[in-house]
Amino acid sequence: MEIQKFTYDNKISRLFLNATIFWGIVAVLVGLLIAIELVFPKLTNGISFLSFGRLRPLHTNAAIFAFVGNAIFTGVYYSIPRLLKTPLYSQLLGKINFWGWQLIIVAAALTIPFGYTVGKEYAELEWPIDIAVTIIWIVFGLNLIMTTLKRRVKHIYVAIWFYIATFVTVAVLHVVNSINIPITFLKSYPVYAGVQDALVQWWYGHNAVAFFLTTPFLGLMYYFVPKAANRPVYSYRLSIIHFWSLIFLYIWAGPHHLLYSALPDWVQALGVVFSVMLIAPSWGGMVNGLLTLRGAWDKVRQDPVLKMFVVAITAYGMATFEGPLLSLKTVNAISHFTDWTIAHVHIGALGWNGMLTFGMIYWLMPRLYKTPLWSIKMANAHFWLATTGMLFFAVPLYFGGITQSLMWKQFTEEGFLKYPNFMETVVQIIPMYALRIFGGVLYVTGIILLIINVIKTAYAGNYVRFEEDEAPALPSKLTPEPGHRGLEARPVMFTIVALIVILIGGIVQFMPMFMIKTNVPTIEAVMPYTPLELHGRDIYVREGCYNCHSQLVRPFRSEVERYGDYSKAGETVYDHPFQFGSKRTGPDLARAGVAGSSVNKPNSWHLTHFEEPQKLIPQSIMPPYPWLLENVLDISTTAKKIRALQYLGHPYPDGFDEIANEDLMKQAAQIAGELRSGGFEIDDNREVIALIAYIQRLGYDISKPADQISVND
Amino acid sequence: MTKDKLPSEQVKVDYEYDTLTNDRLLKDHEYDGIRELDNAPPSWFNMLFIGTIVFAVLYLYILWMFQPAGLVQAKEYQNELAKAKTTASAEPGTRAIRMVLLNDEESMQNGQKVFNSVCAVCHLADGGGLVGPNLTDKYWVHGNSVKDLFTVITEGVIEKGMIPYRDQLSHQQRLEVSGYILNNLVGSEPANPKEPEGELIE
């Protein structure tokens, strides 16, 4: 057989490595800032783009798509040529992938803090950026698949299976969840509404965790752990079993984010059981990673790279045990909407994604620069800072989350809520928020050590851009093999099979939810929003209120007592996007417009509260929103918004788009006039008036007397 | 796995073994120097996987066939309510209440606690009023007897945005907070008193 020589070009990988570090420190610093804001809510007083609701999506997007995204590309572009014994299919596509991705991140950083958002978690980016993401992702996938076709090894390795699954699934998730109707260049409405939007969003959100934070990193684990430990992979058969079961089962588990919501019981049950079944496939990955280190444990004690890998894989095992646990209804009833969730995701992000990335960087640096790591000691210090930082972050939040949840649920012997005032339950856990900041500072310090170490190593060595390698050519006609081994020799077929496997779960859940009416029983009393309320709702989305306030009363006595009647599917049919939220840093608002509900407040209260919450509630950790009282509401888009919603089936009368602004001004004048007569100075045309109108509408429709409400099953 | 051990010399030629663990390496499985072992998944892994699948099938079957309260949230909620009714020691309205102005120290402390956590949100902690009326002056919109205050707290003033506290505060708490307002707040000097509202009642 003819031996062929070829070269690997490290350029793309090195670019991505630098970007990973840069965005990594940005992501954690933004995280640190918003953690501090929760303890000092008036820290950024009056600066809209630094408020918690605007920055929290920036933090999550930066951590997931900028830090982890660049880490994925670093590892993938480094490993695929070597695993396939061929240069990358196209350096140009690689470069487009790199610069395109960085531009997308910059675009995200320039839009999200300024309130340009779709309002769905981890899918906040507006439609032009969504299109750019799609294009760049296809560029990445094309490069990946084409490189496998140029390979000189007959079979594709398990790491590449995971890369392929990542490519096809993220493409499907992103496209389906981002189908929005553009209103302006940076504003759009999702085509799905309410409960259906929620189902699509959490199918996406959960599987972003699965196919952006998990499968690509399992691929990286399968390359970098055996390389760093110089040990064979523990079990090929386990790889096959856990790969296919993982990608098949994950897709079904999204509804566990919507337990006790208005989603039908059968969909929730699917979310529960598929989450439980995920333990084994997830742990299959952990087992294959940890047992690959058999015979190398003496090295683990010394080598910071292996140490980080061990903590990463262990954190993965913990998070994937906790995930199914949190999906059980009894546990979820306690954990959901609390900081328990925040602790859970940070075990995954700081432990699994962070540590695996750091280990990979410390392993790559000496190879990219042909010199030993500048300081092993410093890398070890980073290891300890990251590990303790993660624990100081997570443990207080576990404690705080459970404490607060139990306080929400506690009744007195006489049958009253023990803590009817939400604030009491917040005050109780503020010390935990403070401790979490300490954990964050440790973790950030670790990354600063990494940056110093990387720069020093780069200066000490010489960048090796090209590496020579050689391998026998692959015969043009491959001898067919039976079973999985045969599939491994056919990457395109492998991609197609993976695509089919990941489509099944979504289709089974979506079709009935969209096709069968009884799954979303409509309520006649529920009407579309008035133009003013619609604008108010868009401001609610823009300010990221959903990051701290849910709009979903669960069918528990404690919640019905605290907020009002539990949420129904039919209430949400005009909600583009849905705003259930996933965290209650503040109280639920689904019943804020129901007269007599404990969350219902007069307009003058809201006005004062938006200006400065601490005027009314001194211990409040909500930031002031003075700009809402200053900004003039932009009503130039009203007609477009109405037309878009008419297109989506909202029963506004024909021609309403033309007169919508008159209706809007009438309602604004009424609210502002009433405020002024009560002694509160505010003009009709301020944004806050629209937001107040929206809040007073929440839950209002179904609070009308029972004989006016009929549910159409 | 014992069945993986190889009996004959002849077959051994076809396999290589990992020197550290003595596990069998797979032939032709080498990717950039990474080898793969021919180990079977651990048996506990198989048991765990099968166990969770059995759980899933049973769970869905039970939901399908029996619609039990634990899996159907509307039923679970009804059960919770039913249980709460039987355990609640006192149904509001079943006990006669005497409208007396409390002024003992314990009641005043309790009253202050309730006032600060519930009422201060609109009337401010010093009672000076902001969204809600000033409670320190002698002007009253709905009267100033214990019974008047008790009624306002119980029923709320919905049109003004004050919610009813019937379901949130016990009778005793409503009496205590009424007493706290009348004894401690009326006549005090708040930082930023709101303009008087209602009529003067001496």
**Which sequence of strands runs across the widest sheet of chain B?**
1-2-3
Number of domains of chain B: 3
Number of domains of chain A: 2
CATH superfamily of the largest domain in chain B: Cytochrome c-like domain
**CATH hierarchy, class of the largest domain in chain A:** Mainly Alpha
| CATH C-level name of the largest domain in chain B | Mainly Alpha
The appropriate CATH architecture of the largest domain in chain B is Orthogonal Bundle
Low-confidence stretches of chain B: 5-13
Strand residue percentage of chain B: 5-15%
Largest sheet: number of strands, sense, barrel closure of chain A: 2 strands, antiparallel
What is the helix fraction of residues of chain A, given as a range? 55-70%
Low-pLDDT regions of chain A: none
Proper CATH architecture of the largest domain in chain A: Up-down Bundle
Strand arrangement across the biggest beta sheet of chain A: 1-4
CATH-defined fold name of the largest domain in chain A? Cytochrome C Oxidase, Chain A
Share in β-strands of chain A? under 5%
Write down how many β-strands of chain B occur, each being a DSSP E stretch of 2 or more residues.
5
CATH topology of the largest domain in chain B: Cytochrome Bc1 Complex, Chain D, domain 2
Number of DSSP helical runs of chain A: 25
Q: What structural class do the secondary elements of chain B suggest?
A: mainly alpha
Shape of chain A: globular
